[in-house]
Amino acid sequence: MSKQTEILAPLPLHAANGRLSEEGWARQPFWRYQRSAVPASAWRIKEWDYYAVMSPDQQFAIGLTASNLGYAGLYAICFVDLATGQSYQSDALQVLPLARHAFPEQAADGEVRFASKQLSLHFITEAGQRRLRFASSAIQGPNGRGIEGEILLSQPAGLESMNIATSWAENRKAFYYNSKINCLPASGGFDFAGQHYALKPERDLGVLDWGRGVWTYNNTWYWGSASGYLDGVPFGFNLGYGFSDRSPATENLLLYDGRAHKLDQIEFHFDSSDWLKPWRVSSNDQRLQLNFRPAVDRNSHFNLLAITSEQHQVFGYFSGTAVLDDGRVLQLQDFPGFAEEVRNRW
Predict the structure, then answer these.
(1) Counting beta carbons within 10 angstroms of the beta carbon of residue 183, is it exposed (0 to 12), middle (13 to 18) or buried (19 or more)?
(2) Residue 281 has pLDDT above 90, yes or no
(3) What kind of fold does domain 11-345 have according to CATH?
(4) How does pLDDT run across 33-45, given as a tens digit for each residue?
(5) pTM, whole model, 2 decimals?
(6) Where are the domains of the chain?
(7) Whole-number Cα distances in Å, 270 to 219, 254, 282, 293
(8) Measured on CA atoms in the order 58, 257, 331, 340, is the torsion positive or negative?
(9) How far apart are alpha carbons 30 and 17 in whole angstroms?
(10) In sequence order, what are the residues at sequence separation of 6 or more whose Cβ sits closer than 8 angstroms to the Cβ of residue 115?
(11) 36: CB partners within 8 A, 6+ apart
(12) Cβ 207 vs Cβ 50: under 8 Å
């Protein structure tokens, strides 16, 4: 079992020497990120907000991506049809955004706005509410074209989450600061390809992946997430590894009824020659043992000479057991979520 450092009070993300002030994990986003304190040029700073909402009864997921990678901005709207195994996406690439579209410095409030011929995104966060407006006339659905809507995610007071700040062993000024907030009740809705989709907070939950950092050049990460109701109680998990030096802490935890239950190391077991074959998820502390039944492989590949990326975000259903800190064993059966492998050189 690895020793993990839990951060218990607010602190600056960076020290005066350009390194992280203290590495570890926290139940709240305690680190205060300041772009001006990052010891790197603007083109190396990466900032991103990614939202995903899954509706298990309606068998769909929707993902919204806004990212400023310094030398490129990547924005996307994706609709995932779990029933048919198809995904539909509209995306836009912005060349050399640098600081022109700098994102909020804290996860609790702020605004992200982007518009192009392909799509528009507008995220507004204030007073525990996240309002997500989005549209694209370019996205091609099964029975038509276009998507437009507004989703409201509520963040209950006191909701705990996964927060982590770590660096790379080969470069301690390269860093990864991330908040992943599960179990956000979703309302509102959207029209896609001639059909209306409504979200209900007693049924549908979302997740936020909010990240800021400076990375090393060649990286692979693994991420898994799920948010839903388990016998009427909000339950979710965040799983991740492979990215930065995780000796100070992992980002693996269970979230049950608003409280975080920390896990140690986890591993995904899958066949990269067939992403839709069943996966297995295991933990070294035996507290998480899951089978994952894939339904959709949302994949993307691009190669811009020195910049390459290969991504497989696989949506599907988890079944198995999860053990809380007090020893209670939760049984999961066809619990919706996703798991991914992403390989980047940038």
Answers:
(1) buried
(2) yes
(3) AttH-like fold (2.40.370)
(4) 999 999 999 889 9
(5) 0.97
(6) 11-345
(7) 19, 22, 11, 11
(8) positive
(9) 20
(10) 121
(11) none
(12) no
